[in-house]
Write a structure and sequence with these properties.
This protein has 217 residues and is of the alpha/beta class. Helix content is 47%, strand content 14%. It has 9 helices and 8 strands. The protein has helices at residues 13-22, 31-41, 44-55, 61-72, 90-102, 117-126, 167-181, 183-190, 202-212; strands at residues 2-6, 27-30, 81-84, 109-113, 127-130, 138-140, 159-160, 194-197. The strands form 2 sheets. It has a 5-stranded parallel beta sheet, with helices on both faces. The chain has a 3-stranded antiparallel beta sheet with strand order 6-5-7. The site of adenosine monophosphate has 17 residues, from α2 and α3. Residues 9, 31-32, 35, 52-53, 56-59, 64, 85-86, 88, 92, 164, 173 line the site of adenosine monophosphate.
Length: 217
């Protein structure tokens, strides 16, 4: 499958992408994960991106497009991809359109995960993430606990709160989403690719997406 997951921070894009991948050979591409790994590794990209990320602002479009152009060339993208957190602005969506045309690839669907604001705020403040860049499993201090000593159940690495999940950064990220990313809903509506899903159940969301793109249940 070749799909885009749209939705505010905390709407569940990462969780849905991982669930979709389990039943399909498509790869999850999360620009947020790529950037966090670059920050951790202290690369040039990481150094450029870190300040924006900590403030809850978007990293410049040119940097993101450089990352994505090279990411799409990697062989694992051939079987399909689930874009999680990209595109985030109209210029990114326009560049993506040109890039996919150049690569002769067509999107199957753009999913807009429409989750109430109260649920989003609650999820972001209670979310914890595995610190292993290869894993990044998502936990929740109320509904999906790590081990008793705070380790990831999949890989055993410490489970932590993301640096941009302080109250101040969350408020800024939601503001940025409304200003810069929400206009993509209309963009993809006009492209005839949009499906809005109003649900907080991952099972239900995954099954709607699979049905939409012609995979069973
Ligand atoms: P995420 O994990 O998708 O919430 O992304 C975390 C942070 O990485 C965002 O708050 C941005 O600072 C940055 N980021 C991730 N994806 C993008 C993107 N497509 N465009 C610009 N900045 C991004």
């Amino acid at each position: 499958m070749r799909i885009i997951l749209l939705g505010a921070p905390g709407a569940g894009k990462g969780t849905i992408a991982k669930a979709l991948m389990e039943a399909d050979s498509s790869v999850q591409i999360s620009t947020g994960d790529i950037l966090r790994n670059a920050v951790k590794a202290g690369t040039g990209l990481g150094k450029e991106a870190q300040g924006y990320m900590e403030r809850g602002e978007l990293v410049p479009d040119t940097l993101i497009m450089e990352i994505m152009e090279s990411r799409f060339q990697e062989p694992d993208c051939q079987k399909g991809f689930i874009l999680d957190g990209f595109p985030r602005t109209i210029p990114q969506a326009e560049s993506l359109k040109l890039l996919l045309e150049k690569l002769n690839l067509k999107l199957d669907l753009v999913v807009n995960l429409d989750v109430p604001k109260a649920v989003i705020l609650d999820r972001l403040t209670t979310r914890r993430t595995c610190s292993n860049p290869e894993c990044q499993e998502i936990y929740n201090i109320r509904s999906k606990l790590p081990t008793a000593d705070g380790k990831c159940k999949k890989c055993g690495s410490p489970v932590v709160q993301r640096d941009d999940e302080t109250e101040e950064a969350i408020t800024k990220r939601l503001e940025t989403y409304n200003q810069k990313t929400a206009p993509l809903i209309d963009f993809y509506l006009r492209e005839g690719l949009l499906k809005t899903i109003k649900s907080t159940s991952s099972e239900e969301i995954v099954s709607i997406i699979r049905r939409e793109i012609g995979l069973s249940g």
